Amino acid sequence: MKCFVGIDLGSTTTKAVVLDEDGAVLGRGITNSRSNYDVACAVAKGEAFTNVRFSLCSRALPATTSLDSRKRADLIVDLERHFRLAQHRAQLQALRETVEEEIASIEKFYPHAPVKANVAQILDAMEAAAEPLFARGTARRSDFFRDIAASQYHREATKRACPEKLPFEALMAVFDKSILRSENRELALPFERGAGWAIEKSLEAAGLAGAPEADGLREVLRKAFAVEIEIAESVGTGYGRARLPFEKRQIRSEILCHGLGAHRMFAGTRTVLDIGGQDTKAIQVDENGIVTSFQMNDRCAAGCGRYLGYIADEMNLGLHELGPLAQQASRPVRITSTCTVFAGAEIRDRLTLGQKREDILAGLHRAVILRAMSLLARSGGISEEFTFTGGVAKNVTAVAVLRDLVQRNYGKRTLNISPDSIYTGALGAALFALRAGVKAREEEGAAA
Amino acid sequence: MATTTTTVEQARKDRSQDRQKAMLADYFHKLAIASETGGQTVHTFVPGNLTELIRSFDLLPVLPEINALQSGMRQKSGEYIQRAEKMGHSEDVCSYVKCDLGMLAGGNVGLTGEPLPRPDLLLLSYTGCFTFMKWFELLREETSAPTVMLHVPYQADGRITESMREYVVKQLREKVIPALEKLSGKKYDEDRLRENLSRSAAAEDDLVFVLESAKRVPSPIDAYFAAVYYVGPIFSAFRGTEDAVLYYQELREEIEDRIERGLGPMTPDGLLPEEKFRLVVEGPPNWTHFRDFWRMFHSEGAVIVASTYTKVGGVYDDGFRHDASRPLESLADYCMGCYTNRSLPARVEMIANYVRDYAADGFIVHSVKSCNSFSAGQLLMLREIERRTGKPGGFFESDLVDPRYFSPANVKNRIESYLQMIDQKRAGGTSR
Amino acid sequence: MDAPVVGESLESIVARAEDLTRDVRLDAVRAWKGEHPGKKAIGYLPVYVPREIIHAAGMLPVGIMGGGDQVEIVKGDAYFQSYLCHLPRSTIELGLDGSLDVLDGMIFPSTCDVIRNLSGMWQMLFPEKYVRYFDVPQDFDDRVGGEFYERELRSLIDDLAGLGGGEKVTDEALRRSIALFNENRAHVRAIYAARVKTPWLVPTSEVYLLLRAGNVLPVEEHNSLLGQYLEAARASARRPMDLARVALRGTFCEQPPIDLVRTLERAGCCIVDDDWVLAARWPKDDVAVDGDPVKSLVSAFLHRSPECPSVYLAEGKKGEALVASVKACGAEGVIFAAPSFCDPALLDQPMTQAAAKAAGIPTSAFLYSENTGQFQSIREQAGTFADSIKLS
Question: What's this model's pTM, rounded to 2 decimal places?
Fold first, then answer.
């Protein structure tokens, strides 16, 4: 089957979206790999195609099995989590191999410390923790290998470290040196192998291993997994990258991709506000999703997600805690210095003055959104429906403040937020790929 | 299109450039030996420069703004600015001023490696920019040079009144000319001034032809980046000289030649193969990354067909000429007509007209941190021009000569996005 | 708001002045118009316009100094890049939210490029309002700058006549207005003189409010308020404190928030000289009331203007006036407080600071904006400065 791929090399994550010839979303993938661009793209694409194949599986099942819908759903879930487990184990293996290569260079700084042995133990503990991590019904804080591994390794290292005999830094140094390199290794797990194993394991879990339908199911699943997928067109986008691993004609500006992607998610949208980690964009689109004007703030951290990041650090909170805590404000404080350089000092002063954390946070959220509002005004305001994307769109206080300010300044407007907004850019890129494909076909047709 | 160039064509093409180089070399040489030859310099500003008058006394004009932009292009401005900041100047103020003061503090070495002379007179042509006053107050403090103020009233209501003209002419007569007489030891020679003014008018005719050639589709010139070189002589120490007349004649011939052969503009990377976008630009260029900035446009086939920066030293494409029959009055009108001395509504109208008359696909506002005169109000101008023309406006930010404020990735991203936006609109056949 | 009764307490006078200072939405002007139906109010931006002329035309001159720390900027930031000062943002904000609708016109003096361009923005945003850019001369010759300025003033008079709802500006009317504003300036000078002699009785945080209150009051009422304040302040039983006497410079256009002034006092600084609300102290002394009043205004501007970063210093050396003033006021140090991004103040500063240094006067410098909300670092800096002065 033919498909169209869009890849978005963001500042922290790389996303991929795969569309079919009719423009329906087949699959999506995301990675936070910090390796070189080629690897990041490959991993994101790989994830997306995995997703594609699982959705193909999902589609294939109903027609060919006697299982009821509940059991079918469970089977798919099991397939995925087993696949993820296999993947995770493969990545652990890659990490282990890299550690083996790197450990000597760390050990020599700590001649008497039993680094090697302890690291091996840590990795064993992580291996043991793998299966429960992907057990049915478990919620993971993050789906990215690096995050999971880092947090597990950190915990194990803390347990084992001892300032005189086995410094914590020594153990962490091994991890830090190895983790990025291990991400660089070729996709740790070829899809077929992981898929095959997952099929067996999930049939087992469903108690169907020896059952008469087993072979039939295996066949259906294997076929779905093995569907030949041809990439007809690929478009990449990504801001500030010195070099995108695409030909020039395959690259589109991330502003255009973002506008088109948001419009695809919400056809009535004519304005898009994206508050990302590093920059904020206000985009106006027409009825076809094509950008008609835009404004960006990409030099000043105030008004970007980064601002909230500094605040979280300053207040010793997790990013995800800021919004909920700010909701509890009873007397929001008016924050005047929106400059992040002074934000820290201002927060400290106010805390010393006895102002409450939630009141300060409420004020800080308002400051960020006010900057976004002025960017929106510069780009032409909000005339109709608008869409809010970016990490900050997950922040419940930010959304509340935005709703309030939009209402006050523009009247009642429909505000759209998609839980999948992180894929907006990649979706737009994929749509551009589709358009390019359609155009190519038309040209071929015309020439014929 | 023509791919080979004969020797004759080559010679024709390079003649104006060669002449400009020679003019500059000669000029800097004169500056370098000024102290030996008793040559005296009058420091002044590009908007409202009175070159014809200054030269009628055989004095040499020096333009610190041009020194600053050249320092920017030569990658020296960062160092000068940091020196000035160490001397106590704020990060917030105009980088031209800091660049100049930093250069002065470091020995005032100019473009050719020779020290530039200290001013014998500071002609504070207070036109279109309030920071000019502070600049020369600071220079006066540094150099103890005598200073003469020429207050050029602002065209707030979009026109020049008799009262404003009278004020400027009176200052010329009672303040500026006596100061020039005192410095040079010569008496004011109105005939010499008239001759200079006639030559200016001739050069202005040819300059306007060159600028308006961009109305053609495709345009034979880039009216922003390349035009910086075209307006050099008319904005600076050469207007009114025979050299300038010849330069503009030659430039005009070259452009006529390009038109005949259907050629697009020359860029630093060679002839522009295909004109894909026609743009109008508002705002000064960035000097520290001039070529990179230019390349971001020409590599995408974008040609600037009209710009407001090429009018800061004088607006001539509205019909104004220096007029020998009313020497001081036309100098006054010239000063008051400079772009940054015009009201915001007048600037909006000028740009909107350019977008229409030069068949532009869109326009760009390049906002520079240093220059409040240009920048304050540009966001309103952007929206108003969009409203009037229906064409999209792009908005980029950087600075004149402070390298810390030009972020190539940011600017490139915005330019690419803007151009793709225009492209998509055209391809998609959507509204406008 | 009622005019204070004679014998009003010092606290209530100061409280009233603070209310008026904070009246950025011009409730007082609305009240005045309610009491004088048909009459017009004309706003003016810093630094200087001849209020006498507006007054003589039967109109209320209203000093606009932005929104200070009272106005949340929602729309204003859409009009200005981040590297421009705060004053025009809050002014546009107030214009767009209707707060300034009560004004029939706005005058923009030639203070700097930002205010200059703001006049053009105002023309575009409020086309039905009278907008005037007011170009004060930078040539101080009677026959050159003076003649131009006289024409400017007469054209302003004509403009105001053309608005309707006013009175003819006869010479007599103008002389009367000049006299009233002379009185106003005399009150201010008296307060400033008292502050120099007995700063504990006339603290700067109160003086600041009294001056800014005049932005929204008819001059007659302001005269009365100033007179009562001085009388009450002198009679107060406040005691001298051990504070360092400082002069403040840089605050000539975008004004500091009142809490910043209070912070400086609490940090141990007694401000005995400043350059804020200059319109209230311009010119330095009386404008002549005999002869042609327009010519008197011209002459006063040309020859009796205070030193200001936005006015060309034709003669003398930068900083001489500052040093002289410091000596005259018995100040022991100078604090340079400039608004962020203010080209005139910040480019002036190295020169005036150098002059102060050369005269052996200690200096300190910081930046603020009209809506600065956090004063911790300023308090520390000012406190250290005050201590160093007191100990030396």
Answer: 0.91
